[in-house]
Amino acid sequence: MNDARTEIYARIRGTATGASRQDIDSALHGLGSGPSAPLPSIEPCAAFLANVLLQGGSISTARSRKATVQAVAKYLFERHRTHKIAAGHDQRLAALPWRDAGLLPRFGAAGSNDAVSVSFAAAAVVETGSVILLTGKASPAANHLLVEDHIVLVDCEALLSTLDDATEWVGNLRHRPRGIQLISGPSSTADIGMTLVSGAHGPKRWHIILTGEIPAEAEEEARELAGLT
Amino acid sequence: MQVQSEDFIARAADALSDTAASANRRRLGLQLPAQREAAVATFGAFQSLRDHVESVRRHTLQHLDTYLDEFEQQALENGNQVHFARNGEELNQRVLSIIQRHSAKRVAKGKSMVTEETGLNAALEAAGLRVTETDLGEYIVQQAGEQPSHIVAPALHKPEADIRSLFYEKHPLGARDLDTAEDMVAEARRVLREEFLAADIGIIGANALVAESGYSMLVTNEGNGDLCANLPPVLVICTTVDRLLPRLSDAMSMLRLLVRSTTGQPITSYTSFYSGPARDGDIDGPRETHIVLLDNGRSDILASDYRSMLQCIRCGACLNHCPVYVAAGGHAYGSVYPGPMGSVLTPLLTSLEESHTLPNACTSCGRCEEVCPANIPLPQLLRDLRHAENEAQLLPTPVRLGLKAHAWLVQRPQLYRWLSGLFARSLSRLGRTHWLARRVPGMTDYLNTRDLPMPAKETFLAQLQREAENE
């Protein structure tokens, strides 16, 4: 196989300009950056929540830690009549007052028997309504992919405006994560008769709870922007 | 890569007589372009985004050796094993030897056009492995023993009723009904969930490779590729040497362009960047990761006048907008890459001798170039291939002689004008008596239900000249 490597490199080198790395870098820098998508609102919380709705997600907001666990409990009760939920070994999740809402999270990787999981987004992107999850102990990929309902908590302080800001944010991480997942909706398919169906393999429902100092009218504005009111 | 493009015309005729599949394609040809158009309008500066990504792709291809080297170093540092394959057979062999080293039996695959190109499934199955395609469309065509008909939506040619019958035939359903698309998706989810959990090896493709950090980008709506990348203990990423982009920011720009051009969404449900194997303390993720980089003729394309074809980001927009693809369907092309991009790529990856009918499957309408996010001059490349076809004397003798006679004539403008004038006047006279509408030899059936337009009395050039004189 080393022969293959040598031969492929030789063939590609035969077409190259032979420019120095410095010249290549400066040529790349000279190409500038591409445009990003326009945001639906100048207020980031409303804009993010509107894009989540447009991507097929559902939303709620919580201004305190207690309200956050209550929002999770409300969702769990309404959808599954349960108080069980899977969660990664995330310190921010562990620190939430789950007992105040009568919830019993099971910390670890979700299995096929877990109906609902909760994750804490490392960051989120307003431009696309995406949450950024870094795979690892705090956020095992199984928790994002195996359950029927995936609840993601997003701190409004962690909102990044565009995908370019997300790139910069990744560049500033101290360690290179194994997996960086931008999740922007439930698992879906249109492979049968071009009919959009949720729950192809992963979550059928994707619920975002935006937490922190959120403007009072953000949720309502988001629903208006998404054309849901 | 196996091609059966010689029979394009016969296969296209078969496809046109399949009314249910034709209706599906017509729907695709209307719905997907409309979705793309709406997304482009909402984005606003789409042309500027296209130009930016094109300039980055051209730059990357110009310095591909540097970026490939950077990617390989970064991927190795991230803990991957990196392999190179000159052709499809080498890729299949390499993947098989990885699998055999682990004494693995079950393979879960994400959607990968590269492994369709190399025929990996057949090679693995011949070695006794159980290979399951997990993208729903790919799963359907695998169960049906067919090939994908579209590079993004592999099973769109199959009517819902056929998929229902297929599932009744292949799955032990008992008393369960499959009335709706939701029921069928739920059934596939149930079956494929077991495959994900039992798989020893996951195989996926990559939408892009990021040189600066060694990440592979994976874009899906189903999340099946992510399940393949995270649940089995060994992951193999099969991709090609031209998928490189210098920086993560370039991958993000390409992502904006790719998804809008494909489905009209701003982003897919899952966009993931994978660096390598699970770390100490991780409770999931593959313990071992391999990246297989395939050439299979790409370095030849890089060195040729067709280099711009390597800018392709595999969005499928040219297929959705091509009148020939929408009418004839993907299977008519007899190649894993159909439509305008396939009609350019297939002859370049195989040989013009095997697939010279494909560059002729074109009306030169130019829609593919209008919508191509990578600004690839597809009609021009198709024209160049037709020229090469003529040069290589691959056309039937009467067509070649006809083209020669035409070339001789158009190089003599006076004679051309006199003859075309005579032709126009004769046609006009024949048209007046309606003889033309009834008795064009070889077109009787066609004209039974259609009227030809009345021929003009004089040629376009003569009209233009007259108008110029009047002014």
Q: How would you describe this protein?
A:
Chain B: Residues 300-332, 353-382 form the 4Fe-4S ferredoxin-type domain. Chain B: Keywords: 4Fe-4S, Electron transport, Iron, Iron-sulfur, Metal-binding, Repeat, Transport. Chain B: GO terms for molecular function: 4 iron, 4 sulfur cluster binding; metal ion binding. Chain B: Pfam families: Fer4_8 (PF13183), LUD_dom (PF02589). Chain B: InterPro entries: 4Fe4S_Fe-S-bd (IPR017896), 4Fe4S_Fe_S_CS (IPR017900), FTHF_cligase-like_sf (IPR024185), Helical_ferredxn (IPR009051), LUD_dom (IPR003741), LutB/LldF (IPR004452), NagB/RpiA_transferase-like (IPR037171). The complex is a heterodimer of chains A (229) and B (471). Chain A is α/β, with parallel strands linked by helices. Chain A has a single domain, classed as NagB/RpiA/CoA transferase-like (Rossmann fold). Chain A is 33% helix and 22% strand. Chain A has 8 helices and 12 strands. In chain A, strands 1-12-7-4-2-3 form a 6-stranded parallel sheet, sandwiched between helices. In chain A, strands 8-5-6-9 form a 4-stranded mixed sheet. Chain A has a two-stranded antiparallel ribbon with strand order 10-11. The longest helix of chain A is centred in the first third of the chain and has 16 residues, at 65-80. Chain A is globular, with a radius of gyration of 21 Å. Chain B has 471 residues and is α/β, with parallel strands linked by helices. Among the domains of chain B are: 45-299, NagB/RpiA/CoA transferase-like (Rossmann fold, 3-Layer(aba) Sandwich); 412-470, no CATH class. Chain B contains 24 helices and 10 strands. In chain B, the strands form 2 sheets. In chain B, strands 1-10-7-4-2-3 form a 6-stranded parallel sheet, with helices on both faces. A 4-stranded mixed sheet of chain B has the order 8-5-6-9. In chain B, strand 5 (208-210) and strand 6 (215-220) form a beta hairpin. In chain B, helix 3 (46-62) packs across helix 12. The mean pLDDT of chain B is 93. At the A-B interface, helix 1, helix 2, helix 6, helix 7 and strand 9 of A face helix 2, helix 3, helix 4, strand 1 and helix 8 of B.
